[in-house]
Amino acid sequence: MKNTWPLWEVFIRSKSGLSHKHVGSLHAADAEMALENARDLYTRRNEGISIWVVESKHITASDPDDSDPLFDPAKDKIYRHPTFYNVPDEVTHM
Amino acid sequence: MKEYLLQLADNALILGHRLGEWCGHAPEMELDIALTNIALDLTGQARSLYQRVAELDGLGKTEDDYAYLRDAWEFRNTLLVEQPNGDFAHTIVRQFIFDSYHYYMCQALTQSKDEWLAGFAVKSLKEITYHLRFSSEWMMRLGDGTPISHEKTQAAIEDIWTFSGELTTLNEVEKVMASQGIGADLEKIKPAIAGKMAEVLAAANLTAPTGTWMQSGGKDGKHSEHLGFILAEMQFLQRAYPGQEW
Amino acid sequence: MNNLNFETIFQSKIDEETKIEPKDWMPEAYRKTLIRQISQHAHSEIVGMLPEGNWITRAPSLRRKLILLAKVQDEAGHGLYLYSAAETLGADRDDLVQQLLTGKAKYSSIFNYPTLNWADIGAIGWLVDGAAIMNQVMLTRTSYGPYARAMVRICKEESFHQRQGYEIMIAMAKGSPEQKAMAQDSLNRWWWPSLMMFGPNDSDSTHSDQALKWKIKRKSNDELRQQFVDVTVPQAEYLGLTVPDPDLRWNEERGHYDFGEINWDEFWSVVKGNGPCNRQRLQARVKAYEDGAWVRDAATAYAEKKEQRKLAPEATAKAA
């Protein structure tokens, strides 16, 4: 018989002020166990102060084949970046 | 005082030793890590306590002298913690009974008049809080899981229950320590421990046996046959090659 | 685009050091090679818990006991990081574990040797982890992203493993005559198997070329082995122990140590299952897996019940 606890993705906040960051995955039967396993597996050396776990099947990822239509169009919108604009040197605080 | 600290230390050492036996053999790899974590916490606690005893002794002894150079009759741990791991249900039931006691006992110790002991208890309580959560959750998973797991866990309770009474029965050392406000007054915390156990057992669909004869003696050095073998293994190198650095 | 184009793009990404990520197109052979290599690596970590775990209950001091527990625990952790990386390639952990338990998948042969005296715990940290680190440092730059990231994590944690091992060796080698004898005995037994850990000579290695082209591996077996010998021999000298190789000598011209021929018959024999502990190690893992089945089932069943109660609290209340 196939006997696997579902797969969970783990996100750790390493310290206050930083966002949670994906660190890997693990198996657990339920959410409580996933949190505990994440604590034991990914924070043995003070790596975190907060943990998120989410069952892997609930994550929707973009398809790399779509990366051109998804991400290329942003490349030529250079007017979104401050360096696009010329401001005279004598004008400060901008 | 030293006798009292040795009781606490020996409980932690021997239970940590038992949990260490699981390492590499647990039902799931995540559990290898979890059980080892608890073993590390307990062995760490034992170490602090032995160091403190050595300080109080003032004989230039080390933590290892207490762990490795005393014989079974000098050990002051309860019978519960020296019981074999058995199957995972036995390990979890043993752990849960111990954690329930350990948690409330340690909580009481945070109020100890002995400053060192109170400080030690504050630090340990954080670890024990987690242990109790872990073992309570597993009691529920096993008790309320499948018919097989329920049966095995109920059987483990029947096997182990007889060792639960000793934890909360004061011996002479504990009476003296409690009366001085240094040790935990087990009489006072007994209802809280029993309440916690009843709550988890009910949630786990498990029943505590009634009218069980309670074994005792460990706290006064009268152990089960198991302890001798634990020590034979644990102390082998220190006994075979005395006085060496490792 | 046909596969040929995909493959050209893939190889150019590798050549320009762009990491390959889970959902990116990759040749089936690349995927298979990675799953095989990462899972073998994971199995090695898990089986590797056994020879050292063997001494947890006999560790000679509380300090050593804590260190050893933490180290063996790390190995379980490393196994899990690696299984996690393998799962990003579409493999299923339980399938991989089955391959280990049925003997279809290999793990590092070094763990089929027994730990016979306490110095073996030192020698494993010093030599076996030392050899593993050579390999693993290289793998932090491997082309597959999740594998590289797992290796970064592992390498950070491994350096404590090697140091604690060497510390044990120092204590033993500078200790009583009996302790020194144990240390020498363990070096005698672990030296050659450690050199074998890097795998067959480059001339005989079947997977090497393609793995180098795909930058899964970045150094050849023989390069890594030479590097290991070069750094380890002076460490043995510091301990005052003798490396069990009469042909070992510094070669001024090459700037490397020359060393004797590895007994490849022994190597292949252990790979094929005839090492001193192959059966014992696998039996221990099979036992843990089989004895644990009811526990894993219980947790699954409980999680399902809890989920149902959450969904239908009223129904449960009525039934009660």
Structural write-up:
The complex is a heterotrimer of chains A (94), B (246) and C (320). Chain A is built from 2 helices and 3 strands. Chain A has one domain (7-80): Ubiquitin-like (UB roll) (Roll). With 94 residues, chain A is of the alpha+beta class. The mean pLDDT of chain A is 91. Chain A has a 3-stranded antiparallel β-sheet with strand order 2-1-3, covered by helices on one side. Chain A has helices at residues 31-42, 67-71; strands at 7-13, 21-27, 50-55. Chain B is an all-alpha fold. Chain B is 66% helix and 0% strand. The radius of gyration of chain B is 18 Å and the shape is globular. Chain C is 69% helix and 2% strand. Chain C has helices at residues 3-15, 28-47, 49-53, 62-87, 93-101, 119-139, 145-173, 177-196, 208-213, 221-239, 264-274, 278-311, 313-319; strands at residues 249-251, 256-258. In chain C, a hairpin with a 4-residue loop joins β1 (249-251) and β2 (256-258). The termini of chain C are far apart. The chains are: A alpha+beta (94), B mainly alpha (246), C mainly alpha (320). At the B-C interface, α1, α2, α3, α6 and α7 of B face α3, α4, α7 and α12 of C.
